[in-house]
Amino acid sequence: MYKRLPLPPHYDRSKADQLYRVPYQSLADAARNWARHHAMKPASADDSKIAFIAVDIQNAFCLPDFELFVGGHSGMGAVEDTQRLTEFIYTNLGRLNRIFCSMDTHQAMQIFHGLFFTDANGNAPPPHTVITAQSVKEGRWRVRDDVARSLGYTPEYTQSHLNHYVQTLSESDKYELTVWPYHALLGGVSHALVPLFEEAVFFHTVARYSQPEMLIKGSHPLTEHYSILGPEVDTDAQGNILVNDGRQWVERLKNFDAILIAGQAKSHCMAWTIDDMLSAMQAIAPEMVSRVYILEDCTTPVVIPGVVDYTEAAEAAFSRFKAAGMHMVSTAVPISDWPDFPVDL
Known about the structure:
Elements: H1 24-37, E1 50-55, H2 59-62, H3 77-91, E2 98-104, E3 117-118, E4 130-131, H4 133-137, E5 142-143, H5 145-150, H6 155-170, E6 177-178, H7 195-208, E7 213-217, H8 247-253, E8 258-263, H9 269-284, E9 292-295, E10 303-304, E11 308-309, H10 311-324, E12 327-329
Parallel strand pairs: 1-2, 1-8, 2-7, 8-9, 9-12
Antiparallel strand pairs: 3-5, 4-6, 10-11
């Protein structure tokens, strides 16, 4: 009979909205003692393998005082998601074989930050401005020449790329280009994993001798990169590849009996990651689709009161995933009771 583990003594769910230093050494000692007490075996000895994919559980999106906090309609969505997600890891510590963490990774001069653009008067667009194909065609927004040169491009090249970029988005089912607040800047605290979640990942690493894998995305200056697998636009105006797709990573997921996924935001990086995974799995090995379990109570859509609400778009995407054969589940339900779970617990 499968039983969930208790929460370890160090865990404090009230710290989900706090920024603090993770005490690695004392936590490592506690994890080893916890593993011995509960007779956990190393992940390498698992008979079956469960992958856990955590999408962008970073300070930028999950702490209320940070730039792109995903509050949802409750106002505390990502904090509540982090609590449920972290508790799920602890209570299923002996079952999760490998944790994958995607990391949105940016610098200031990128196509979705205000510094990249200028109007006729030299002004940058404020956060949440939508750069449409029409506004670029009319000359309301263009690439700032000094930014182009700093990145090693000519102003002519970057302007041509912008025209191509927004036109490509307008002809696809992708979101239009949005100017986001500066966020998840490489080397900054905004980029780091949320401490409560980082503790759980580190605890799992030590207790199960399972090295987590960090999946870096979003560093190319000329494209957005919501999905783990690939960018919003993958070529420049001349057809040159900007970022290679992540199909090889999906190939690696074939080695897992079940694939769990949760994270932020439901309407953006979660939705596009799952969408790309679905397409890749259908092309590579269609039977993989039914092995995917989406923790629906651990993700929240982007809602900016009075500005934009992506809830409807997120729900439409998740309905499509379910119709394709992926499973929508809740952490409140034991894994053993999830529908058609392929692992014998």
